[in-house]
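Kindly inspect what follows.
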Amino acid sequence: MNIKYQILFRACDKVESVHKVKRPFGLNKIQTIKISFYSMYQSLRGSQYQFTIIGDDLSAELLDFFKAFTDVVVDNDKLGSAAKSLQKQIDIALNIPDNEWVYMCEDDYLHTPYAFKYLSEFINNKERYMQTSGKKKNYMNRIIGDLKDTPVIIHTPDYPDRYDPPWKRLSFIFLSKYCHWRQISNTTHTFLLESSTIKRFEEYIKASAVGPSDSKLSERVYGRILFKNKALCISPIHGLSTHMTEGVMTPLVDWQTICQDNIDKMKKEGIWE
């Protein structure tokens, strides 16, 4: 299947950090946005995509930076809040054709060079990977039905707190060609899904933009044990991205090297100061 990705990248450099937590590797917010964008842009090489920046009153420095990427659309406006930016992102996503995959991404997620290679392989084979048995002895599968028919949402990082005692829980595990995928039930507003899935859960996704509220999104949209009128949310192990905030970075990946590699490439292109 020829996958087309619609990348909707929300960016705002006016706020350094919502929770006042430091960025890793001594980076400031503008540098974090540049590296997050560039790492994803590089990972998309070889894929079919449309990349749109949803800017909230971006600085001249960032606008100049994005001009170096001629195939990227910059939609910059004075929105004034994360809620308005997210709502704009959702409105755009709702007008995308049903069979295209929409990546709603915040501006501080660093991606591995192979992120979209792994994502595309999984998406192309997800029905086979997610299929569950209907055998009589597997009572759980008899109750939930075949998971290959359940809408899937992909959260690309692997947050370390999921391994802490309060968050350990039973979950489905799937094996693809390149990595494992684990069912999760909580995410931020960075996730990948088909446009048809956004439309199916439009009411709840829009409601989660008020605040915004990650918990409303997770509670209303993601199934845990049963999946009637719910989606199955999964994240890769090891994670394919990381939130660029100290204390919550995806474990077991050398993010400092990935970060520096992206900086070195940007320096060679003359777009890093």
About this structure: The mean pLDDT is 93. The first strand starts at residue 4 and ends at 11.
